[in-house]
Structures are given as C-alpha cells and as structure tokens.
Amino acid sequence: MGKLITQSEAAKLRGVTVAAINYLVKKGRIRGVEKYGRTLVYDNEVINYKPRQAGRPTTKATSKKKSAKK
C-alpha cells in the first residue's frame, strides 16, 4: 500500500484535472478510500496507473464461407 493523498494532489501528480481522477475512482480503475468526508487515493496507484488504449476495439476479419450453389 502507499500513502493516502487527496484527489487534487493526485491530479497535480498526474497532470490532469480533479474530475479525471474522480472518474477513475468511480470506474474502479484507481482505488479510493472515504475518510473524513473526502475521497482519498493511494499515491502508488496514481503513479503506476496506465491508461487503456483509446477507441473502439478492433475485430478480427472473418472469412465468409461461400455456399455452394446447385
């Protein structure tokens, strides 16, 4: 475990907005802890967070089998 920091400290650490950190906590990508009426996050999770690849996932090209005509 790491040290608990506020969402604003995490935002400064990552170079993003507080809303972006809040979104990651709500989606479960960064673990948040409710203390003293605030949501705190672990600093090591913020530092080690790797964003997912953006965009729609690619699909494998499937070959369509041609039906034999009689």
Give the SSE layout.
Elements: E1 4-6, H1 7-14, H2 18-26, E2 32-35, E3 38-42, H3 43-48
Protein described:
The protein is of the alpha+beta class. The protein has a domain at 4-48. 33% of the residues lie in helices and 17% in strands. It has helices spanning 7-14, 18-26, 43-48; strands at 4-6, 32-35, 38-42. The radius of gyration is 21 Å and the shape is rod-shaped. The termini are far apart.
Q: What is the succession of H and E elements?
A: EHHEEH
Shape: rod-shaped
| Strand segment count | 3
Major sheet strand order:
1-3-2
Number of helices: 3
Structural class: alpha+beta
What about the largest sheet?
Answer: 3 strands, antiparallel
- Radius of gyration from the alpha-carbon trace, in angstroms: 21 Å
Q: In summary, what is this structure?
A:
By secondary structure, the protein is an alpha+beta fold. The chain is built from three helices and three strands. α1 crosses α2.
What are the defining features of this structure?
70 residues, three-stranded antiparallel β-sheet, 3 helices, alpha+beta, rod-shaped
